[in-house]
Amino acid sequence: MPTRSEIASRIDHTVLNPASPHAAFVDACRYAVANHCASVCICPFFVRECADLLRGSGVATCTVIGFPHGTHATEAKVAEARLAMEDGAEELDMVVNVSKCKDGDWDYVGRDIAAVCRAVHAAGRVLKVIFECCYLTDAEKIRLCEICTEIGVDFVKTSTGYGSGGATVADVALMKAHVGPKVRIKAAGGIHTSEELLALLAAGADRFGCSRTEAILAGLPA
Fold first, then answer.
1. How far apart are CA 146 and CA 51, in angstroms?
2. How far apart are CA 35 and CA 143, in angstroms?
3. What whole-number distance in Å separates Cα of residue 185 and Cα of residue 158?
4. How do the pLDDT tens digits run along the chain, 222 residues long?
């Protein structure tokens, strides 16, 4: 079984509840540093302060783009990404336009992802693309995996945590089977226990978005 520190290094410790007080974001940064998490994933307005708090810690500053519905205009997503990077974001989790996926307008979907990817990679940062799997058919998820592989994103991600469902072993396994070898998988949404996380790890997830990090890590050997 992986150790607590090995799993912590794969967790994006997450605070994205819009009702979170300022102290919750600060506490998340302190917790992630103390436990050597991969990143802290927080709301865009807090990115600058988060980057200041994490500077020199080895924990990345992560934020969300087009969150949570993905229906923002492409130009707005690109502008949001650039502002976040100016503020210090090192990793950006972008939501696809689910409406366009349901329409089968894959040219639009590809252009939307590619525009953000160009901006993010030009700055030497990391892009994760959120599918919101609970709203998609397997065929739609597979097409998104193909598009993301062609574009060269860094991660594909299961969920925002605000849809009708979160990460599942079946979705992670499906994504693993259909992305290229350079694209990694982030499981997020509804991960409550170490057992759930380990099952997603076994299915092929490389990174995990967790708001219940403390409880998850408590279930692992030190």
1. 33
2. 37
3. 8
4. 899 999 999 999 999 999 999 999 999 999 999 999 999 999 999 999 999 999 999 999 999 999 999 999 999 999 999 999 999 999 999 999 999 999 999 999 999 999 999 999 999 999 999 999 999 999 999 999 999 999 999 999 999 999 999 999 999 999 999 999 999 999 999 999 999 999 999 999 999 999 999 999 999 999
pTM, two decimal places: 0.97
**Virtual torsion, Cα 191, 196, 199, 200, nearest 10 deg:** 0
Closest CA to 198 of 221, 174, 175, 165: 221
Active site residues: 93, 157, 186
What are phi and psi for residue 127, nearest 5 degrees? -115, 130
Distance CA 35, CA 15 (A): 16
Task: Specify the DSSP class assigned to residue 19.
Answer: T
Does domain 4-218 sit in CATH 3.40.50.300?
no
Note the residue count of the chain: 222
